[in-house]
């Protein structure tokens, strides 16, 4: 694929608003069975580097790359010579001469991903960093679009930790007019102010409203109730008694009854009985496993965009 355009997705903010809308729509098209013959990764080599456990994201991007005509090389947490002292820059200089796309889930900040992207030869996709999970946010938007036929004006209640999933969702949903994202997080475990400030800027420019409060009883009526695991993959909490702060934020039947028509979303994996009751996760309002399936469709849209193949988007999704 020499000479093809390369694009990086390390943060939602790497996408223009129209680009983001286009990827979301393309994911919905793939989910509807359109574009199944597309092979934008024909002869492309895609590397997947996962230093943290992954079921949905790793499988989605691996299967997506193969379905789009690519070839796959997988790296585990201890496979690269970075573990023996080679610099990120040297590793990137080598990989970029052999790979067309690198899908990476790191153990830390986005700095390593930016270093991989700086070489300019291969596209780099953030499959989850400590700060942000952009491909999950795109999956969530694709799920909303498929279910509601629109994203503009939707109201979402998020309960739980202000983690990388919440940060990415904050950036992404606030780019749609009339949306409302109500964050309900335990004190000390909220979404970082940087993301709230950026969301406010998007809102002021015609986007949506994002608010964060620490009261689990303040439950506005919404279209979607969303939660994630209380213990983010690969992390620990300093306070040994942290569960006490989180338990009031569990999504159970009473929470869902506050919005009788709402759907339930979860990025999975779930700890049943912690952040969500089994009754809700397995109940008729839950679309969590449909959401997981959409990660595969969204991954294909992201891969296509990264090699310059995604259709141009507009801002009416």
TrEMBL record:
Which GO BP terms, alphabetically? citrulline biosynthetic process; L-arginine biosynthetic process via ornithine
Q: Which SUPFAM superfamilies match?
A: Aspartate/ornithine carbamoyltransferase
Q: Which domain of life is it from?
A: Bacteria
Q: Which residues form the Aspartate/ornithine carbamoyltransferase carbamoyl-P binding domain?
A: 7-144
Pfam families in the record:
OTCace, OTCace_N
The alphabetized UniProt keywords are:
Transferase
GO-annotated molecular function? amino acid binding; ornithine carbamoyltransferase activity
Report the residue ranges that make up the Aspartate/ornithine carbamoyltransferase Asp/Orn-binding domain in this protein.
152-306
InterPro entries for the chain: Asp/Orn_carbamoyltranf_P-bd (IPR006132), Asp/Orn_carbamoylTrfase (IPR006130), Asp/Orn_carbamoylTrfase_sf (IPR036901), Asp_carbamoyltransf_Asp/Orn-bd (IPR006131), Orn/put_carbamltrans (IPR002292)
Q: Which family does it belong to?
A: Belongs to the aspartate/ornithine carbamoyltransferase superfamily.
Q: By its UniProt entry, which PANTHER family does this protein fall under?
A: ORNITHINE CARBAMOYLTRANSFERASE, MITOCHONDRIAL, ORNITHINE TRANSCARBAMYLASE, MITOCHONDRIAL
Query: What is the name of this protein?
Result: Ornithine carbamoyltransferase
């Amino acid at each position: 694929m020499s000479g093809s355009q390369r694009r990086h997705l390390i943060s939602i903010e790497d996408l223009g608003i129209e680009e983001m809308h286009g990827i979301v729509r393309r994911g919905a098209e793939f989910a509807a069975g359109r574009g199944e013959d597309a092979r934008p990764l024909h002869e492309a080599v895609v590397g997947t580097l996962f230093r943290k456990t992954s079921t949905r994201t790793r499988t989605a991007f691996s299967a997506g790359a193969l379905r789009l005509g690519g070839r796959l090389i997988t790296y585990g947490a201890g496979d690269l010579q970075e573990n023996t002292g080679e610099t990120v820059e040297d590793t990137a200089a080598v990989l970029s001469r052999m790979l067309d796309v690198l899908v990476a889930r790191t153990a830390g900040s986005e700095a390593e991903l930016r270093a991989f992207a700086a070489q300019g030869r291969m596209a780099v996709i953030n499959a989850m960093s400590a700060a942000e999970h952009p491909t999950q946010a795109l999956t969530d938007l694709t799920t909303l679009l498929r279910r509601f036929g629109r994203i503009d004006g939707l109201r979402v209640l998020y309960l739980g930790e202000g983690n990388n999933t919440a940060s990415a969702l904050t950036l992404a949903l606030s780019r749609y007019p009339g949306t409302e994202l109500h964050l309900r997080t335990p004190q000390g475990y909220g979404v970082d102010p940087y993301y709230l400030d950026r969301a406010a800027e998007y809102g002021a420019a015609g986007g949506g409203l994002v608010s964060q409060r620490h009261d689990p009883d303040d439950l506005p009526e919404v279209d979607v109730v969303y939660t994630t695991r209380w213990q983010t993959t690969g992390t620990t909490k300093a306070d040994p008694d942290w569960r006490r702060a989180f338990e009031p934020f569990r999504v159970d039947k009473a929470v869902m009854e506050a919005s009788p028509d709402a759907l339930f979303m979860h990025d999975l994996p779930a700890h049943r009985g912690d952040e969500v009751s089994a009754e809700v996760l397995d109940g008729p309002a839950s679309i969590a496993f449909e959401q997981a399936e959409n990660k595969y469709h969204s991954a294909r849209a992201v891969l296509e965009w990264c090699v310059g193949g995604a259709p141009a988007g507009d801002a009416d999704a």
